[in-house]
Design brief:
alpha+beta; 22 strands; 375 residues; ten-stranded antiparallel β-sheet
């Protein structure tokens, strides 16, 4: 368990004095959770190319801004399969949509000739009989998402770049480099770790000063750097963020909240996991803020992984974000990988309820206020 004032016994410096802070530095190298000393890496600064052998181009010591998608294996219990080219998926999706429209027109014409309208529906039937499950599965080849003829399509009908809120009215807009895909047990969003690869809601989903729960299946492909799958806020600072933290070489899952509007590292409080693999593995991350108990709890794969006290939380302005977080007025921690099955409740789930969520057995009466990529 850590907070913004004690990160592996690392001294913090006052950002207002131009000595840097979490996110991007204020004047000297450093970042959240990193010592403000010469020679220490900035988790959000892109690496410089390193010289290669004679006759070869420079290479990067870390993945560039827009890494090529890597094969995503299954969560535990599922058989992995290779991922397709996600950009090609998006292109094929447009082509398939045009093809379906042509088939639909042909089917109507056939029906008009006396063969019956049922033929058109038979041609268009996808045979989708699987309902939403506990999380994404990779046991079969992924196909492009967003088919408007699919009742479980992740997007708003007629709006292929707008994620549909299956529980409320807050849809989430996709940036140009955010790509949708469909797997056996749901829909996923692939983000490319750059400033043009994220998704943003129209407004905030919960009041972060009150109790709430946020959860998602995530798959991180970045070996280095702090990466945030979900956050809320777009002003000077986030209200909360959920993702992977890279601090002094230690990589952990983290659920963090800000307690002051200035967004200083010293006023951030986080529940951090210990001993979990955070790279190229599926994880169900669930963050719970209990305003009455004054606790911040992080669950990984349904089990408690970190807990810390928090006196009060700050409810900053700004909407829900997928794939980035706001630090010192700058977008930071771009997600590299896949996000799916995003759920938000305006109440704190109990440990038993979080465990039930992992198995897809959470009581249906415990309804989220927002849910995306679950169909």
């Amino acid at each position: 368990m850590t907070d913004g004032t004690d990160r592996a016994n690392t001294p913090q410096q006052d950002p207002s004095a131009g000595q840097g802070g979490y996110g991007y530095p204020q004047g000297t190298p450093g970042g959240y959770g990193f010592p403000q000393q010469p020679g220490q890496p900035n988790p959000y600064q892109q690496p410089l190319p390193q010289p290669g052998p004679a006759g070869e181009p420079p290479h990067y010591s870390q993945a560039p801004q827009a890494p090529q998608p890597q094969p995503v294996p299954s969560p535990a219990g599922f058989t992995p399969s290779p991922q397709p080219d996600w950009q090609a998926m998006a292109d094929r999706s447009e082509s398939q949509l045009r093809t379906r429209k042509r088939i639909w027109m042909i089917a109507i014409g056939v029906a008009a000739c006396g063969l019956g309208v049922g033929a058109g529906f038979f041609i268009l039937d996808k045979g989708d009989k699987d309902g939403p499950g506990p999380g994404p599965s990779q046991s079969a080849t992924a196909t492009p998402g967003g088919d408007p003829s699919d009742a479980n399509a992740p997007t708003v009908p007629g709006e292929p770049n707008l994620l549909r809120d299956r529980s409320g009215q807050i849809n989430i807009a996709l940036s140009p480099d955010a790509v949708l895909g469909k797997v056996d047990n749901g829909n996923v969003l692939r983000l490319r770790s750059n400033g043009n690869s994220y998704a943003q809601a129209a407004e905030q989903v919960v009041d972060a000063s009150k109790s709430f729960t946020v959860s998602a299946w995530v798959y991180n492909e970045a070996d280095a750097g702090s990466r945030f799958a979900i956050s809320q806020g777009d002003g000077a600072s986030y209200s909360f963020e959920l993702g992977r933290e890279d601090s002094n070489g230690k990589k952990s899952w983290v659920f963090r909240m800000q307690t002051d509007q200035k967004g200083a590292a010293s006023t951030a409080v986080g529940a951090v996991s210990d001993g979990f693999n955070t790279v190229r593995t599926w994880a169900l991350l669930t963050g719970v803020y209990d305003a009455q108990a004054k606790t911040l709890t992080l669950y990984v794969d349904g089990k408690e992984a970190g807990r810390t006290p928090v006196a009060a939380a700050w409810a900053g302005q700004g909407p829900l974000q997928l794939g980035r977080s706001r630090h010192h007025g700058i977008w930071s921690g771009p997600w590299a990988g896949v996000i799916g099955h995003v759920l938000v409740w305006d109440k704190p789930l109990t440990a038993d309820q979080v465990l039930a969520l992992k198995g897809g057995k959470l009581d249906k009466e415990i309804k989220p206020v927002g849910s995306w990529l679950i169909g």
